[in-house]
Each structure stands twice: as C-alpha cells, then as structure tokens.
From TrEMBL:
Gene3D superfamilies: Phosphoglycerate mutase-like (3.40.50.1240)
Record's protein name: Uncharacterized protein
InterPro entries reported in the protein's UniProt record: His_PPase_superfam
Amino acid sequence: GGGGGGGRRRRRRRNDGGAVVGIGRSDFLRRAVASVAPASLLALSSSSLSGVGVGVEPANALTAPPVPGPGLGLGLVVPPAYARGLVQFPCRDGELGNSYHFLRAGQSLLEAEDVWSTNPLFLTNREAALSDLGIEQIERACQLLTSRSVNPTVLRYSLAASAVDSANVAGRELKLGRDRLVPEFNFMDPRALGLWDMLPLERTTEAIWAMDNDEGGIGGTGGRPPPNEDGTPNETLANQVVRLTNLLSVLETQYSGDTVLLIFPDGTGPALLSCLIAGVPLNRVHELEFAPGEVRTDVTPKSILDLLEAKKGGGGTDGANEEYLSKLERGREELKRLRSAGDDIVSVKDRNYDRDLT
C-alpha cells in the first residue's frame, strides 16, 4: 500500500532480482498445500483454490485427504469418503469402517418375572441380572458366532446388569481377553418408559409397539409415554436415536477394520440402529425387534433389508406378517387401557410392595 495506510496489505515475496512482488491468495494457498502434501494430492489449480476458506469446499477439491502438517490451517474440506466422525444415516454398503454383529442380552431375572424395567438408574441392579435361561441363550448365541467364524476384536456392552453378565459369558465362550471387553456407559441404554416403567412386560410391550407403529412417524418423534414422578424419563424412539447415533459415531472414530460385537440390554436398541443404518422408517422398528439372546451377524444395509423382506413371509398386509399384526391389535387395546387409567397405574414393584406389607 501507499503512505496513506488505507490500502489492503498483500502477502509479499522477493523475486530472483531482489524486488518485492505481490502474491495472490490462491497462489499462496496452492504453495502452502504443496509444502505439506505429496505431489499425488496436488491436482489443484489456482482457479480451484480461488474460493477456499473455512467451511467452503471448492468445486475441484482434493480427491484425497491432505496430509496433516505444520501450518495446514487452511480450512480445506475433507471429502466425505475419508471423513471420520458423526455417522450419517442411512449408510451405504461398505461405508462403515468396521464389521458389526448385534446381540441382545439374555433373559434377565426381571424379564423372567414379566417385569419391564427401563429406569437408567436401576439398570445395574442385580435383580436385572441374567436368569439361568438367559445364560443358556448367550451360550447358544456364542456357538452360532463360532460356527460362522466370527471372532470379535472388540466386544462393547451396556452397563445394564443383564448385558454385563452376557458380556462375561460371551468373553468366556469366545475366549476373549479382558482388554477386548469394553463397557459403554449410556449410549446403549434402552428407551425409558416414564409412568409405564415396571409394568407387566408382555402386555406393555405390545402397547408400546402399537403406539410406535401408529404414532411414532418415520422419524420416531411421536408416541411419548406419560411422565413419571420417580425420575424415569419418558422417551420417544427419537430420544434413543440420539444415543445410538453417538454410539456408532464413537465406534467408527475409535476403531478401524475391527470386528465389533455389540451387546444391548433390550430388543429395540439393536433394531432401531438397524433401521437407521438401512434407512427403514422408524415406526417399523419393532418388525426387526430382537428376542432375548438373539444375535445377528454381519449387519449391513443389505442384510437388514433382506431380513425385513423375509419377515413378510407370514402373509400379512402392509409389509408385516400376521403374528406382528396380531400383536399390534392387542397392543392398541392395551394402550387404550393404559391411557384411560392415567396416574392410577400401579407398577409391579409397588403392587408387590403393598402385598408384602399386608
């Protein structure tokens, strides 16, 4: 600039003759990238860099991620194929960096008593530990994994008591070192049911299925159970989606090329993650529900859609089989009863407590 000081400063360099000449911004960026990236990554012209800035992707961006190095704070956008971080749903086959296998924990002691417990504060209680049948279910699941030559390098499990026990059984049966068993503190928590927590499992399950099918919507934002004064959250499917999105994003960031076995405490969690991966509307989640001790190997968008198609085999309408539709019909009646009861609902725990006092 001149002596007035009002002109814009330009980055300057000296030419071979010693005179100072200006350097354009695009030329500066090209030279900066060249100083830290190999030649194979530098298919860039001055025109392709002319609009580069923080958060701006040029029309002819890098075709591979730039090699990190000192001074590369240029705001270049890494192409999606190389970005690792928050997973975007639905996924494409081959897009995930790890292979995944989903396992629901075996039957818990509370489930054996037909009690549905969802309060996250009580998931670790030993009353929710594996039942004898639950142990057998996990042992059979491990036999299936072995028969399919699945050797997990990472076993990630919920801190719910049934999932912890299932992880210990799986670790023993699959001969995994303790370093491969990694606890997950809350991203695998089941959906909490508010006022309907600790109600009879079988009847309430069908009511929740009917509510999600009829009111949940494609994104799972509808169908919320009533609130509870004891602190049990009342969640929609969308609330659980947030946790599952974080779960898979952490796994994809933390591991690469691993064989990951996930142990969920409930049947909806792995089914919901399956829907997200394959792009299945979330109000159909319970068509993919996991039974206690059920394992599904090599979970991919294609395998999920193939399974959903296979489950239509019962001859039902609306893309579901007759058994599932029958559960929805019974569930709608139970849902009406629960809603008509309002705050007068008494949980199994409170009913048993009152019985013990008399």
